[in-house]
Predict the 3D structure of the following.
Amino acid sequence: MALEYLGLADITGPLVAIDGVKNVSFEEMVDIKMDGGVRSGRVVALDGERAVVQVFAGTNGLSLSKTHSRFLGKPMEMALAPEIVGRIFNGAGQPIDGLGDVYAERFSDINGSAINPVSRSYPRNYIRTGISSIDTLITLIRGQKLPIFSGSGMSHNKLAAQIVRQAKISDEEGASFGIVFCAMGVTKDVADYFRRSFEESGALSRVTMFLNLSSDPIIERILTPRCALTAAEYLAFEQNMHILVVMTDMTSYAEALREFSSSKGEIPGRKGYPGYLYSDLASLYERAGVIKGRGGSVTQIPILTMPNDDITHPIPDLTGYITEGQIVLDRYLDQQAVYPPISVLPSLSRLMKDGIGEGYTRKDHSDVSNQLFASYAKVSDARGLASVIGEEELSPTDKRYLDFGNHFEHEFLGQGQSVERTIEESLDLGWRLLSILPREELERVDTKVLDEHYGKH
Amino acid sequence: MSNNVIHSINGPVVTVQNTSDFSMMEMVYVGNAGLIGEVISVNEKKTTIQVYENTTGLYIGEPVNGSGAPLSATLGPGIMQNIFDGIERPLGEIAEKHGAFIATGVKADPLNKTKLWDVTILAKVGDEVKGGTIIATCPETSIVTHKSMIPPTLSGVVTWAAENGKYNVTQPILKVKDDDGKEHEVCLAQKWPIRIPRPVADHKVINRPLITGQRVIDTLFPIAKGGAAAIPGGFGTGKTMTQHQLAKWCDADIIIYVGCGERGNEMTDVLEEFQKLQDPKHNCPMMERTSLIANTSNMPVAAREASIYTGVTLAEYYRDMGYDVAMMADSSSRWAEALREISGRLEEMPAEEGFPAYLPSRLAAFYERAGSVETQNGLDGSVTLIGAVSPQGSDFSEPVTQNTKRFVRCFLALDKSLAYARHYPAINWTISYSEYYEDLDPYYIENVGEDFCKLRGRMLSLLSEENKLMEIVKLIGSDVLPDSQKITLEAARVIRVGFLQQNAFHQNDTFVPLEKQLWMMKAIMHLYDKALYLIGAGVPMSAISEKGMFDKLVKAKYEIPNDKPEMFGDYMKDIDDIAAALLAAQKNSSSAAAAILSAAEPEQENTEEGAE
């Protein structure tokens, strides 16, 4: 039905209201035409004959009288085909690489729908990143969502690029491995950095990019991760590929959501973010996983910069409640030139317990990681004490903790950008460091395992 | 046919104008797809409905039909071993019909209508029956006997009873004539509105602990059968892990596990693991006594709000059969956020942090559904509620944690710094509490050991003393403390590492019977007493710790199997022997020292300077 409505009733921020509409459905797409061209929008509220529409490209230049709107009768969909691999799209899922439209095999609603928990298969296969701290202590599992909590100016982008470059799946083929890169509100430089590093590692032909740069409209930013994840789900569950989704920067996404929410006049929750921020973030993060009977998987690495390095800020806080762990970067380590500057104590991978050990990595893996965590936790106590009474006055055990702490940070964590370590190398290094400590301090490990490994590497 | 149509749509909230057909809290079908919704406010001008499914694609002008009844749970055999969404639709069946992704407008009966149950009819024609009377039984799983009851509000005389045999959940098995002469058919399945507590004959005194096999809970902060407990903790502190451990090992007959707005993979984990894990009491998969309600964080928010009530209604139904039921809700904060989200859509005036003003009363109403009761049919049953709380920013002063604290009597606070050091369960012993000590102490004294409560008290005071000493140690180091205080620190370390820390992945340690817990406490305190005595007799700290008894006790939890707790007796004997040897050596050396005046014994000087 090609009914066109002339004029608008109201324009507020990115929202316009159209009066007298009939036969319109919730979240239906709208084309808004004016002199300069066509803009897309989506119905966000319906009240009787008034429809409130969010305009993706913003409302600048729209006027109440000269606009024509046409309702398209369907929710926002994305064109999907195996050929989207290697293409570049804008935030609203339209190709911007000059290679023309995607010849669609099918269209999918970008909101997706929830995976039935019964149909999920519990993620168990680990992804080898070649980074000691991640492989040993915060193991990444295929089908997991593991965010990087960072701060402005730290090396999260380098780390994400290194993970993408080195990521290997333990048991099989790299052929069906793909990357979906989703940039939300990042600068052109950052987007370029990722493109270059994909190119250098030869991965570019396997990368599908969705770019919403910081100068692009914020409403489009709300759609960007949805488009990217729709593409990822399609490639994973219908084309049987193992997809790694890198999303940066979730903070810009949440801020776009806040801007949109306040323009709708919604009641704000904490720090002005809408009360549904949790549900909204969950609708993105929960799209990771493995489905029974389908070949592929979606693994997510969202990156977020914590405002003011504050982990209790609503964005990292709510993210942490949804994702299966987190990798936290630390400014102090970053300043000490430790790369990657992973702060291991607050970092965690919830799924690693079932994806490590015999048959996956190595039998002693969980012993090593538990003991490294526990011992490193004591290092800060010893350091605190040393700063008060001086290093000289410390007990011999505490001195060995200081020694262990320094080696741990500079050898185990600080492996550098070009070094790739196998899981055996990482675990052996872990034992070598633990052997700095007196044997009776290793209380997390069974006597038998200690006999086998303590001082032997 | 009604002519009520949708007037407005805003997320999960839709309104209908100018109608008086709907009643408050009535369940309605919205739109052509028949999405399930619930009436949440009614006035002359408009009726507001929250929809339990995604409203994308819904049109203004689509019909809204009432069901004439409030949102209800279907209760009957087939609940155990099943997994439902927040409004009791079976997820397994939905997956079979609609594939891996959840579609909207799905019609699915909560209980399988084709499955036949092997029913034994207990009621006879002429029997007087009232609400709760058990009329039939059938084996629901290998360990749960399902007892079908007269619906709580019905009473009268049986006019017809079916023969024993195989019936599905909708075939009538009994006819009952009520006092007004009206005949009612009773079948295996019945309905009950989820927001109304099922009636009971009487509330009873709480006097039995829920035995969980988790030392820090059973010993320090016990939960009572019929009690309510909250587990607050920031992300990564192990709330879900603790809930899983409780669901696996607690001694309730029935487990209802509600995943309310949490991760999909976690529900899959529970589902897979519970089918594999063996229930130690009955030797069958744990799933046979478990029902799961999964409303993951990306499933519709209104159904998340309902899932808690659905769960507790199922729990009450099994309680009425005379079972001890434990319900885990993970997490109640997500439920509160669902309330906030819907409240925001209704443009209600917010109270604290955007939460609606009725948050405390809703929380109170939920936790009050816990209890140890005498059921309508005279049996003893209980519902224990254990709610996880996810405080924003790990800040326990936020509204959900604070209000929950007022209505639960057991508060197991999870601590970030413990979790960072991988001390699990990360229950902080200084801010957690249980108000059930007095109710439960007689049980412990009678069934576990007379000195159980005394030992617990001593352990707690030792821990708080450690807390105080650590303040000093942080400033000046432990070397300057006198030996008696060093022993306190060492003993507290054994309690922390050897007793409070528990390894969920170690077969001897994931579940520990009360008897072994008592033995562990005994051994630890015995060592502490002996060590204090030795210090008093002049034996230096270094000589005591050199013997390695502290470290041996720390590892005893792994080395001593659960069925041989008396092996701790050997440990205690070792301690006695070592103490006697040390004492004898001390006497010798002190007489020797008297002889050679200034020279200290060489052994001591070589090893540790701290003992001077």
